[in-house]
Amino acid sequence: MDKGLHFVFCVVTTMLLLRESSQTGTTRNDDAGTDLRGPEESLPTLTVTTILEDPYVMVRSAELEGYCIDLLKALATMLRFSYRVKVVGDGRYGAVASSGNWTGMIGEILRQEADIAVAPLTVTSAREEVVSFTTPFLQTGIGILLRKDTVSQEMSFFHFLAPFSKETWTGLLFAYVLTCFCLFLVARLSPCEWNEPKNEENHFTFLNSLWFGAGALALQGVTPRPKALSVRVIAAVWWLFTITLLAAYVANFTALLSSGSEQLPIQTFEDLVKQRKLEFGTLDGSSTFYFFKNSKNPIHQMIYEYMDKRRDRVLVKTYQEAVQRVMESNYAFIGESISQDLAAARHCHLIRAPEVIGARGFGIATTQASPWTKKLSIAVLKLRESGDLDYLRNKWWESSCLHKSSERWSPLQPQALGGLFLTLGIGLALGVIAAVLELSHKSRRAAGHAKKSCCSVFTEEMCTRLRIKENTRQSQETSGRANA
Question: What separation in angstroms does the CA of 276 have from each of 104, 150, 325, 431?
Fold first, then answer.
């Protein structure tokens, strides 16, 4: 009996202990689950409106990706919030409609259909009056997107002068005249070119010197041939100068023909207004359209009047439509330069005109007095300081033909040939010094034979060689009188 009671007592005690252990384990598991779910449930959720535009927001495999999506993920991680992304219903950025209400993403924020807008949304004064913007995360401007074959023109009659700048051609002309003059001067001073000025004839007249320099430019040997060392020094350095110059000309002219940058007649917005071959327009209701509307610049006003009168024909609804129209018709698109750079990189037959106006930035729009405005601005600044924004820029703007669209040809400036002109100057100076030394050597020998001062003989020789034409005329006149 005692054994039976003891067995029952042990069984009851064991069951109670097991039950207590089971309840304790269940409580701990529930508490652990609460700790894990607590932070998830406490995160604020923001409704984010955006617009489909490559490469900011794109649909890939039923999911959104792009520059703005990566930026949004980085901001959510830094500020600890969750988000729900929705594409703007009317496909617009945001402008005041005829009814006075705002459209696009700005309208959705005002109607509290979204908390923030993360998109290529330009910060403007009109938008800043109704919503708040963060620090811009991308800087841009207004540019002109063109198709290369629609803006090409025939080369000018003097297109062969384009490889060198005007300053370079002026320097080349000056170097040619100076070298020919030095040839003429040194040939007269050097005794090796003519030993007896009164009886001999010097072949290096000024006209012959000009012809000799021109022959070197054409890589052709011409007469007269230099005999003296001083004249040969000048001839050699001039040949070196011309060979190097011709090589630079051929290389730059080849680059000019291949790049075709000089074949782009539309360099500025003024060029766009003056031409009649291309239609031009921008996004309907965009900040670019209102920039031209509010601008006091006469050229900008002409652009606005052109687009406003033909708005049904030249204004486009989406950026993709604009790029497609540029590629398929005689149409120039006016829009954000940073987006045009991407289009020119993705489509190598497109090009952006050099001029960019209206520097501006893309910002994140929030409701006015929203506590998220300052938080997001600080987060954007931190991302810029850490280099994350540059990383995203390089990631989504990378393209196989980016380097082709960024090539810019320019005429060769004198600074690029500075060393060549310096070498020519040193060679001319050495030639003149050598001629003076040759003449002084002869003068010393003549002074020794005639027992005169070396300086006086040197002066007489120099005067005789430099005034040979006058002496020749006098001798001819004397002989003529004697014959008469």
Answer: 33, 12, 17, 58
Q: What is the mean pLDDT of residues 381-403?
A: 82
456/451 Cα distance (integer angstroms): 11
Please check whether residue 57 is in contact with residue 68, taking contact to mean a CB–CB distance below 8 angstroms.
Answer: yes
pLDDT digits 0-9 by tens, 145-192: 998 876 555 556 777 788 888 888 898 999 999 999 988 888 888 877
State the Cα–Cα distance between residues 314 and 280, nearest whole angstrom.
Answer: 6
Residues whose CB falls within 8 Å of the CB of residue 50, separated by 6 or more in sequence, listed in order: 56, 57, 64, 68, 85, 86, 87, 88, 105, 117, 118, 119
pLDDT of 473 above 60: no
Q: Are strands 45-50 and 82-87 parallel, antiparallel or unpaired?
A: parallel
CA-CA distance, 98 to 108, in Å (whole number)?
17
Condensed to tens digits (0 to 9), the pLDDT of residues 311-370 reads: 889 999 888 899 999 999 999 999 989 888 888 888 888 888 889 998 888 999 999 989
Q: Find tokens 């100057």 and name the residue.
A: 425
Is residue 287 within 8 A of residue 339, CB to CB? The reply is: no
Question: Residue 96 — φ and ψ, nearest 5°?
Answer: -80, 125
d(CA 146, CA 261) in angstroms, rounded, equals 13
Q: In what order do the strands lie in the sheet with 116-117?
A: 82-87, 45-50, 116-117, 365-366, 132-133
Helical axes 418-450 vs 454-466, angle rounded to 10°? 120
> How much is the pTM?
0.50
The alpha carbon of residue 157 and the mean position of all alpha carbons in its chain are separated, in whole angstroms, by 28
DSSP 94: -
- CA–CA–CA angle 109, 53, 286 (5° rounding): 60
Give the CB-side neighbour count of residue 375, counting CA atoms within 13 A. Answer: 13
In angstroms, the CA 445 to CA 314 distance is 89
**164: β partners:** 412
By the 10 Å C-beta count (0-12 exposed, 13-18 middle, 19+ buried), 27 is classed as: exposed
Rounded CA-CA distance 227/231 in Å is 7
CA distance 266 to 275: 8
Q: Which DSSP letter does residue 363 get?
A: -
* C-alpha span between 402 and 396 (Å, rounded): 12
Helix (H) or strand (E) holding 83: strand 82-87
The total number of residues shown for the chain amounts to 484
Six-digit token string for 130: 């109704």
